[in-house]
Amino acid sequence: MPHIVLLGTLDTKHSETLYLHDQLHQTALRLSQPIQITVIDCGCRPTTDDAITITQPELISKYAPITPKNEPWELPRGEAIKFLSDCATRAVAELLSTTEIHGIVGTGGSGGTSLISSVMRDAAPIGLPKLIVSTVASGNTGPVVGECDITLMYSVVDIAGSNRLLRDVLENAAGSIFGMASAYQHRLVQRRQEDTQLQGGKRKTRIGITMFGVTTPCVDQIRSHLESKYPDAVEIYVFHATGHGGKAMERLVEEGQLDAILDITTTEICDLIAGGEMSCEEDRLETGLRLGIPNIISVGATDMVNFGPMGTVPPKYKERRLFVHNPSVTLMRTNSEEGSKIASFIADKVKRFASDPEMVEVWVPRAGVSSISTKGKVFEDGYADEILFGALVAGLDKTEVDVVMDTRDVNDTGFAVDIADRLMELVEKHAQKTS
Fold first, then answer.
1. For the whole model, what pTM was predicted?
2. Which of 97, 197, 365, 413 lies 20 to 30 A from 72 at CA?
3. What is the per-residue DSSP string for 285-323?
């Protein structure tokens, strides 16, 4: 029986949320399947209905992180959303720790979407189905989805009142989350059976690798090599280093869903430093280092900062070396000053967070960090590269972390094979240390 959590701000989306609740029951009835629905009212003002499982007053009295001095409707809108999302996050986290949840769904405008997505990102693991019917699903959804697997369904019309089109969308949403939740429930059963069969055996090592278009040959060769040399021993997860990719990888490490990292492509750090559009957050690199898993860090695509179309490049960078990667993406070549800052960022994180330095290595492909920075290519800049490389070596001097200076470029077959094999050596060493 799928168990679905339905989040709603029932003071403003009462009839719409309850219509979705009703359609979930109707979907289950048509398929002759039972269903359990937990409705959590996240609205600013309390409402009543028999369908509500956790009322707004109950949500606040039991799950508020602090005793509120004001009622939610008395707070500024942003503060109210933050407070209620914190309450709902704690409620959902408790549910997940005490019972089996197979899906989370909600509806909202901009405020409701912000609230519900925050709960999904902070309380639910990656893999658990998450769906929001939202008025802002066709806009800039990066802040909503973040590094998570949230599915957005555009409501087309505002979620205000009842009309045929909105009912159609909500019925589709009910069918979608019911199907996803049923699949997730089935998958959990399969995983438990697999885990039982694996008791005493050895499961595959789950390896996360970061990639960009300009480091794709490297990552493809690593994946091919590992899967052919260790066919029953590894499972590869590739993350596109677009700002959320690195964060998603590190979240999976935190959740225990990855065992080792080949952080080939650390380009998101460039955007953080220079103000590009695919920036990581300040805590990039920390999770894998802190948890002490096998972790090889390289400097793939640290020759570039990402912007949108040429017209979006900040005026202060107009005289820099720019390259139109495609009509939507303009790349700026990093210079020596930025390279030094990138190296300092990496070295600082390694020195401060590496709980097991034996499990960490930094590999430097000196002949080029991307497919467009090798000899004769548009972003070739040996001086800037050597500043970055030198600062990295200096920053990690007198530490227990090995810095491997390789003469090949990042996409060289030999480099890819050697770095992959070295990671597997660290994996074996880690297994011996923790057995």
1. 0.88
2. 97
3. THHHHHHT--EEEEEETTTEEEESSGGGS-GGGTTS-EE
